[in-house]
């Protein structure tokens, strides 16, 4: 292994010398490449790693990473501005064009728009979080969760588009801006970095539950003033409830298996509110028969 590393480093040095004799001779980077390690430096790191048993990568530099991100953001001198004010978050501008009158008054229209806008915001937040988890899921259930989260992302995208178009149909603008999501969503940010499968199951079980309950409130608010909106929200709630079930089913306790998630969670049970961690589900009788009375 040591000989292979040295051979690789020697080959790298030879290539560097062919491309830039000055680089190979001096061991210094040319102007404009101050941040790039030289071939000599890479060889030195490999030799040091062989001697000490330490990894060859340089130590992490969070501040340097932040500075590089800032540099990328400032890379383009092109200004992005508009003569139109940014407005509040959310902004739901009412159209002056003729639209179908709900016949319930201005107050009712505001409630209708509010229910639609909040649903749109939560759907967009879930879109972002499902994609983040889809990319970073790790562990035993990596592949099935990777596929399931993509399916959820696509479904949430369709629901969000339907709700946004309903806002336009009732005569209001839809607000899907990032700041609106950040400032008004009730769903917290999912943790950054790699996400283990048990963590994803627990997080989305609760996130979908919260959004489903919010949409349910919207259904009740709009059922008398705008039955069409109420029906659309029922479709959304139906989908969210399905997604929530698909997450919690992985941890569903049964009479024969507690399904506590220990195999996914480093030997510890995955805790969900409303269940006793590590405990089997209560006896609900033989399948197909009525449950025993308490």
TrEMBL record:
Taxonomic lineage of this organism?
Bacteria, Pseudomonadati, Pseudomonadota, Alphaproteobacteria, Hyphomicrobiales
Instruction: Tell me a Gene Ontology molecular-function term this record carries.
Output: ferric iron binding
| Record SUPFAM superfamilies | Ferritin-like (SSF47240)
Transmembrane intervals:
none
Where is each Ferritin/DPS domain found?
Answer: 114-253
What does UniProt give as the signal peptide span? 1-24
Region of interest: Disordered: 52-99, 254-294
**Protein name (Swiss-Prot/TrEMBL):** Ferritin/DPS domain-containing protein
The UniProt record lists the keyword Ligase? no
Which keywords does the record carry?
Answer: Signal
| Family of the protein in this entry | Belongs to the Dps family.
